[in-house]
Amino acid sequence: MPPLLDVRNLTTHIRTGRGTVRAVQDVSFTLEAGETLGLVGESGCGKSMTGLSLLGLLPPGGTLVEGSSVRLDGRELVGLPDRELRTVRGNDIAMVFQDPMTSLDPTKTIGHQVAEPVLLHRGVSRAAARERAVEVLGLVGLPQPRRRLSDYPHQLSGGQRQRALIAMALANEPRVLIADEPTTALDVTIQAQILALLADLRARLGMAMILITHDMGVTAGNTDRVNVMYAGRIAESTGTDRLFSRMRHPYTQRLLASVPRLTQDPALLLPTIPGLPPDLADPPTGCRFADRCPYATARCRAEEPQLDGTAEHRFACWHPVDGPAPAEIGGKVADAVAGAATGGGEGAAATTGLAEGPAAAGTVVRPRAPEPAAAAAPLLEARGLVREYPLRGSWLPGRDRRVVHAVSDVSFTLARGETFGLVGESGCGKTTLGRLLVGLDRPDAGAVTLEGTDIGTLRGGELRRRRRDLQMVFQDPFSSLDPRMRVSAVLREPLRIQGIGTAREQRARVAELMAEVGLPERGLDLFPHEFSGGQRQRVGLARALALTPKVIVADEPVSALDVSVRAQVLNLMKRLQAAHGLSYVVISHDLAVVRHLADRIGVMYLGRLVEVGTAAEVHRRPAHPYTAGLLAAVPVPDPAQERAKRGAGIGGELPDPAAPPSGCRFRTRCPLAQERCAREEPALRSFGPGHTAACHFPLVAPAADSPSDVAAGRP
């Protein structure tokens, strides 16, 4: 009996102004009913283009090369007339795209969009299509599905939009679902819910699934087999358990090693993959991974290896490895040379041709943050910060005034050379708090002091001078860097605004900054779009460093990056901290990232800090159920662990910040909630030196309460 989906020699070429891009090359695999196949690799490796090619959804200039074959239940799809192929799309094979906000039509209701494929393929009445929409919206766990029919995409949360997109794909009960990075833009808690939903739907509906992702943790817990793709080709193909324990391709080994882990020693630098994937308009001779591979020989650069091995495990490598890399492969921060701390740089970008070199010579020694008990006066202090935003229209006469409680009575301190991590889901107030810390927004109550000076009282030139000490790195470097300015102008701008140095001195400083972040000086003449994502984030870090600040607030600095590039940027941040004695406030929804960087962690929920402690203590002994839920939701690149914790974590979504629950704000999602939680708001209590949490029913026994400790966020 033939497999449900049989792909043979799939090859996709795209004609562009700079030549023919060989996006997918000789890709072959099968998919059985009820099976989940993972396609994993870095951005640009051909994962998404493989998924699109299966459906014939090619970009302008794209063609399937002769010899490509895609068979569904024995029926050849390549070469079908458009009319017949359209009956396959959305009916037999459906696709869930990465970003639901751009995939959903903002001008049409959710009900219209979910019912549309039913009307198109089933030929039923509008009333029947509407009822089917209600049915599938309920199937994917969207609350009050009938009411959601009249909602527009912007009225739903990120997780709800993704559920609506899945409902659209499932409306006609497809036999194959292609999920292209379905959780990349989501918090770890919502990601866990969506992945559990997909697994449940696959089992209930008996459909097969292709899961496209760059996240090795997501791959570990949600696939049966995995194809690791690199530069348009399959580099390795085997069962999920075997891939993670006995991988044979060096690329797979390095990809897995670069994943931050909660259990990893923060003193170790993350292993990285130097360089970038090759330009597929001009692919190299021989093995396409050779320029980035630590085991490459002359043969690798001359002869291209083909997929070899057994039917259960195939790999394309002349010098295969045997299992994971040693845990200490990254080296210690204290022993790392500055160039090594950047992971060797990102290498030659396909768009720029830049090769990043070492930033400086010497040994990187990360300054140890002072122990809480021995800490002197804090460098930065937040005291009782409150920030509320009135809802549109609530100021009109006769209407109740409704406000969004973005930040509610938040206090903490930051020592010199320390990294404080702010963790929580989207909408919990992390970014608003970060903006308050650097003076981009003003609190309604409370104060932010830097070296004892309340920055809220500063005005004019005094405020401008003080802002040199407080800088911010934003989540998306593409939107935060002016696309019309060359990088040289981007980096000179803060120096010019502050009137620092002559033009010659500014040019010298800009060149120095490029070296600091591991970018070559010739990149100064390029525009932001000519850099890779990781390189743009390096430019963002260089701009933040231009004024030699004392504190940098980094808002989700690596969430938009591939895992290998993420490791490079995290290592770079550690090296810069060591070189300049910087203090960081790192904002993230990923506890594994924060655990790697932070000395202390503050966990935020719906505008409040619910737990604060050292990174080690919060990881080892979480006191608040929300913290424990965030930890449980972090994907682990270990199939056995991921399967064991399936279904654990936090259910539901963040409540409306304009109408937070009474008492404990987490009670509506807490597995331990009792009647008292609705009546009384819990106060912060001490759970040991420097460790506080606000919970009536904590997971560990509290120490003697100390109000003075709680107020300062430190002992």
- Strand-pairing-aware structural class: alpha/beta
Total helical elements? 26
- The strand count comes to 25
Looking at how many chains there are and whether they match, the oligomeric state comes to single chain
Rounded average pLDDT: 88
How many angstroms does the end-to-end distance come to? Answer: 69 Å
C-alpha Rg (nearest Å):
26 Å
Q: Could you say which overall geometry the principal axes of the C-alpha atoms support? A: globular
Q: Strand order, biggest sheet? A: 7-8-9-3-10-11-13-12
Helix content: 25-40%
Given as residue ranges, the uncertain stretches (5+ residues, pLDDT < 50) are 333-353, 355-374, 708-715
| Biggest pleated-sheet summary | 8 strands, mixed
Kindly estimate the percentage of residues that lie in beta strands according to DSSP: 15-25%
Keywords:
715 residues, alpha/beta, eight-stranded mixed sheet, 26 helices, 32% helix, globular, disordered C terminus, nucleotide-binding, transport, Peptide/nickel transport system ATP-binding protein/peptide/nickel transport system ATP-binding protein
